[in-house]
Amino acid sequence: MSRIAIITGASSGIGKAFVKALLEAPDCPERIWITARRLDRLEQMSSLSDKIIPIKADLLTHEGIEVIKSKLASEKPEVALLVNSAGMGRRGNIADRASSEIEDAVNLNCISLSVLSREVLPYMSSGSRIINIASTAAFLPQPGFTVYAASKSYVISFTRAFAQELKGTGIKVTAVCPGPVNTEFNSLATDGASSEFTGFRKLVAADADKLAAASLKASRRGRVMFVYGFFQKALHVASKLIPVGLFLKIFYR
Predict the structure, then answer these.
(1) In angstroms, what is the C-alpha Rg of the chain?
(2) Please, what is the Cα angle at 215 between 174 and 118, to 5 degrees?
(3) pTM of the model
(4) Which of 11, 48, 84, 207 allows an S-S link to 113, with CB 3.0 to 4.6 Å?
């Protein structure tokens, strides 16, 4: 039985960084299944190592989940690591976004992550790990980024409860909460209006490669919540102290 890792959203950004970090890790499994919609990018990444197996799968659809589910059933590997990195978000008020964009964000950030975690679970054993990419946006409501922040709150809640359910099995689940990360995410979130962060976000934006390496280390240690970066840790503490109503008033001002 081969040991594998599965990394979703692996064609770019944080997912791609996890692939590179895992290849350099001492506990890198025999195979790394990388999934995304863009097969050409996945195939480019496969040149990094013969361990990498590219799998085209659109996790916004039931068919995309079925692709991974069928491959698991066929090969029956031992899944040492699942990284749920696929995600999306669009800036703008709810009234200014298409209904389909709202639906896609909830489906990918919440439903697909939850369902895939469930489908992979029978192939895991003591020592296996799941990493769910959340965000510090989850700590407080964010008008103008409403659906993304709410969906990442779901990821944190899901991870905490799931980790408790798996207590005693040896399977660890970690929610990773970064702030801004230097990837193409900002360009997508702003519909191409801004490819880089500005102002304070630019000052605190994290390096994706360093984030991935630190997240793998945190998951090995069994951390259920991993908030990455000093300012993000400060925000986490502040979010527990500041009343939500007051935060929203300050935010709008």
Answers:
(1) 18
(2) 35
(3) 0.91
(4) 84
